[in-house]
Amino acid sequence: MDKIIEKNPKIKQRILQFIDVKGITKTDFCKRTGISYGNIKGNANKSELGGEQISIILEVFPEISPEWLLLGNGEMLRNAALNLGHGQQIVTQNNNGTINADNRQFYSDSPSVLRAQIEVLDERIKEKDAQIKEKDAQIKELHALLNKMVEKN
Q1: 129 pLDDT band (50/70/90 cuts)?
Q2: How far apart are CA 77 and CA 66, in angstroms?
Q3: Nearest-10 Cα torsion for 77, 83, 84, 88
Q4: Is the pLDDT of residue 3 over 50?
Q5: Best CA proximity match to 4, nearest among 65, 70, 79
Q6: Domain 1-75, CATH
Q7: What are the phi and psi torsion angles at 107 (to 5°)?
Q8: What dihedral angle (degrees, nearest 10) is formed by the CA atoms of 115, 119, 125, 129?
Q9: pLDDT given for residue 149 in this prediction
Q10: Is the dihedral of CA 3, 47, 42, 21 positive or negative?
Q11: Contacts for 123 with CB less than 8 Å, ≥ 6 apart
């Protein structure tokens, strides 16, 4: 029994690591999963999570690898395509930047899972929009520099 209790805080530590990598607040995580904020702060990290709570986390954040969450093995994020139905898939990247796509279907059609998928995709779109804006600014700077160089000649 002591060994099981000893490992449980590691699950909460991995949850906190996921929250940090995901760039969301603990409050947002708790709101989306229905888990009490007090359950993931301070000394509460030493207590165990129930199976139902872990199940909810995996349902709301389907990109989390269950093996990583429970055992700490492998990558944090699943290396599979998001299945959107009607044969549409979205390719995801794993932690080392390698693009992966496969035909495993691990998503259900439940509304909460679909909402979570939409939130993940919305976040990715926002990230890509920010990258595009940054690249546009770099292009403008280079274009202005090029114009100055042409004017000097």
Answers
A1: very high
A2: 9
A3: 120
A4: no
A5: 70
A6: 1.10.260
A7: -100, 145
A8: 140
A9: 92
A10: positive
A11: 23
Beta strands 99-100 and 92-93: pairing type? Answer: antiparallel
Tokens of 82: 């998001």
pLDDT at 109: 53
Rg (CA), the chain: 20
H or E stretch at 112: helix 111-152
8-45 pLDDT, tens digit per residue, is 458 888 898 899 888 888 888 988 998 888 878 766 55
Determine the angle formed by the axes of helices 111-152 and 51-60, rounding to 10 degrees. 40
Using CA atoms, how far apart are residues 135 and 141, in angstroms rounded to an integer? 10
Closest among 13, 22, 17 to 62, alpha carbons compared: 22
Give the Cα separation of 116 and 121 in Å (integer): 9
pLDDT tens-digit map of 42-91:
665 567 788 888 999 999 999 999 988 988 888 888 854 444 444 444 44
- In Å, how far from its chain's centre is CA 42? 23
Of 68, 27, 90, give the one whose Cα is nearest residue 19.
Answer: 27
For 90, the token pair is 């979205």
